[in-house]
């Protein structure tokens, strides 16, 4: 028998309340998470903490793309992070944690595990 | 002890000496007394013909050197030199002692002694007063001579004569030019070029008589009759002599100093006369016997003397006598050995009378080295070719001037080629500057001075940067190949109102943190026209904004925001001041007075902003746009209200300006200041636009800058009434908003603007591009469409909803934000008192 990994989903907000290409911050089990909805409707969730400044602000960055990959730019010193992977595209040694996200009954949920 | 240098003459060259000496005399060795014959301070004589456009001599004024070491005595010429006592006497009888005397008396127009040369109606062309007199005569002709017969005769068909003819035509007279040589501009162009030039000039409505002398001028029933040597008779209202100049060397002659064979104060290559304490520079000097009638050699002499006065050993490097005609639409240039006087010199000519293009290169006998050339009809390659004089040509000379193969490669220039003749900067020096990190034209200007004189070498600087592999692409980012200015024009012309539509039709991808705020700014600048009553956080526009604009507050290093309400002109009532204090106290905000005369409240969390602003708006405050690339403040001094010296109401004007331009989005922030008199307590000259009161109105200065690279603002126009001042600022701002690059402040914008300050003045004062009506309309729409951005948020629940810490826990403040108390106020916790200030870790890179 394999152990069933217990996933715990936390509700964030209604999907329709997310403005495309703009983030919101949510508190997921005490951790600040930035949640984005891109123009094609896809959801992304990453740690809200900007590793370069140590400040919880990534949700307030500008969403765009770099060579086709969706990104958010930190509003503090402008480093760019890939939304899908959390990788910093300006400094390969740095990345931020990503979180699974889904829509259930019109509500966005993020999982902390 | 300070020594005294007396400068006789405040022309372009005398002025340059003052600038150079003050700029370099760091140990304050010299005080300068300038004795000027003219009653106005030094002005740009080279641009004299533009006086006809505005009839405002102030537009010609050269930037004054404001320094306590300089004493300028206008209208009091030097009349005698006493070499034994080392004094000069002035016309008013004053005696001035000198340790060094510099003659910079320029030259006087040569008037050939033809009978009738002194009739009323005969003029010369050298000062604004000359032009005023010609204007009065032209106006008289308008009244007395029937239309179609009003005319003016210019004696002399050189560079100046053609400018004079053009001016006469602007005054409503039909111009005739009489030239004794067989062609126009005989000094600069050869026969072939002269023929084409004549066609162009005649095309401008000027009648040309070459190879003929002026024999006599006779009065003729209130007008004049000019007889030429071949019997031709010309009826005319005005005669203008522009038959060359003679150096003004009388002072030197009277003092027993040697003069050149053809006149001019004789000096050696250090600009010394035979008297060790006396120097001569500019058009009055004959350097090793030769006089120069152009400004660049004069500037070089001024630099030599400044250097020598400070103990240096500079010598006059010889001069570039290259010239380019400035008449609208006629391209003529000549450089180097244009007449092929060198032994064995060959001429390679390309002549296309149909296309209107004549080009000649003069090369060495082996056709490898460029010696000089003449270009008529198309002088595009002037900058590159001039720089190549004396160098081995990169290609067959014929190919270089044929229209197809004509593109010259700047990379082929030899290291010693002079790119900028005004400041003697070589290709090598530019290369060194690029290696040291100068990658833009303003950067090169700052470290080499190239391009800061006449500006004609700026296109060449761009080419050199490109040749050095420095990317000069104007593309905004990977999503748009356009520059910001191009995008602005696209939006204005197509009236596209959303980023999505713009990036779909004109770009690629989904945008980024570079192009989105840039487009947001363009949409906001144009909102008065495109979207009256709109808000920067409406719909998709909200997603384009930087975090500052998105939360209408300034993001600080710990993720909190600062709040700056508008305090127009820095004037505030005690009641409002108390409200600010109470709000700061109640929300626990760190409070500081800014340099722009307002109050900045720091440490507000996102979710606190609406409540803070509710209080402020209720007390009558509005957004101060400290968060935006927009007008920040108009700083003012107290002016006539209180100050004993004030001559105008500086506070009143500052408030009016701040209210007029509040909310105007621009490529970068805009700051302004208004001073109530010349004492300049508001530091207006360090602002993007600054106003200083005069006895009769206002002087407007533009493109100043504090910050990283400080720059004093330049005088754009002077003595304006308030209405004209405001209109001029309107146009200045809108022209900047339309044409600047992203994040380019006004100072670097002006430095990159081709044609510089003169061009700017032309565009917004003389409407040379015909866009002023558009600019005026855009500002008018902005003024009408303005509304307070914070009030807009407070009145819209959807916008208000964005100001939360966490969407799923709106009441919980961000737990990572902490404060400690420092000097009695809250400050971000992660910088504890006494600790070294660590701005960034060792690996931190700032991307933009
Ligand atoms: C219409 C026009 C167009 C021109 N275009 C060009 C051009 O395109 N390119 C170019 O290179 N050059 C051009 N020039 C020439 C250029 O203007 C001169 O080379 C330059 O002004 C010379 O400067 P300067 O200081 O030697 O003489 P000036 O500018 O003539 O100044 C000399 C000053 O000394 C004063 N003075 C004379 N005697 C005394 C005295 N005893 N005591 C006190 N003051 C005295 C005079 O009143 C005058 O103000 C042009 C000139 C004119 C008139
Ligand atoms: S600039 Fe003039 S008017 Fe204004 S405060 Fe200073 S001295 Fe007074
Ligand atoms: S050549 Fe005049 S500024 Fe360079």
Largest sheet of chain A: 4 strands, antiparallel
Average pLDDT of chain A, to the nearest integer? 90
Helicity of chain B, as a percent range: 25-40%
Each distinct ligand: flavin-adenine dinucleotide, iron/sulfur cluster, FE2/S2 (inorganic) cluster
Strand runs of chain B, count? 39
Low-confidence stretches of chain B: 831-848
Write the element-wise H/E pattern of chain A from the N-terminal end onward. Answer: EEEEEEEEEEEE
CATH class of chain A: Mainly Beta
Structural category of chain A is mainly beta
Radius of gyration of chain B: 31 Å
The CATH superfamily of chain A is Rieske [2Fe-2S] iron-sulphur domain
Question: What's the shape of chain A?
Answer: globular
CATH class designation of one domain in chain B: Alpha Beta
CATH fold annotation of chain A: Rieske Iron-sulfur Protein
Name the CATH homologous superfamily of one domain in chain B.
Answer: FAD/NAD(P)-binding domain
How much of the residues of chain A is beta strand, in percent? over 45%
Q: Say what oligomer this is.
A: heterodimer
Beta content of chain B: 15-25%
- Tell me the domain tally of chain A: 1
Taking the sheet with the most strands of chain B, its summary is: 5 strands, parallel
Labels describing this entry:
heterodimer, A: 113 residues, mainly beta, Rieske Iron-sulfur Protein, 4-stranded antiparallel beta sheet, 3-stranded antiparallel beta sheet, globular, B: 848 residues, alpha/beta, FAD/NAD(P)-binding domain, Enolase-like, domain 1, 5-stranded parallel beta sheet, 28 helices, 39 strands, 31% helix, 20% strand, disordered C terminus, binds flavin-adenine dinucleotide, binds iron/sulfur cluster, binds FE2/S2 (inorganic) cluster
